[in-house]
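Researcher: Please predict.
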Amino acid sequence: MKTDNLTYSFFRLREKLYRSALRFLKNDEEAKDALQDTFFRLWKSGPLESDDEARNKLFTVLRNICIDRLRKPQTVPISDSDTNDMTVQPDFSEDVDRLKSLLSTGLTDIQQKIYTFAVDEGMEYEDIASALNMSTEAVRMNMSRARKKLRENYHKLNR
């Protein structure tokens, strides 16, 4: 008896998916986590029509999850001994805020909200979409447009 297409394809391709994730992430545990996240994300989305569709979505979602994991900043805990050696840095917060405002010139309100949620708060697109009552595709499109505008503003400032 054949189970659903996603489960069947996942178990059939599990080693290839794992090796693909390992090539991206260079860490065994991260690769296993990405594999698990891939299956769960597709399982939540509902049944798939064919084995080919399941295979394509498995590799696509895995690649996107790996890229997301690589983009997230790595956090390193600070031990007590590290705090003794820290030197006081000058306060650049005013300069950073001014630069942010110059770069974000021309962004719509929704683009600014989405960019803030994604970059400053580290939220996923699905979470942003539910918070703003938008579709995930609309969030991705607005984020793409915001990044494009930020790049343009950055290049204008550096000329």
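Model: The mean pLDDT is 83.
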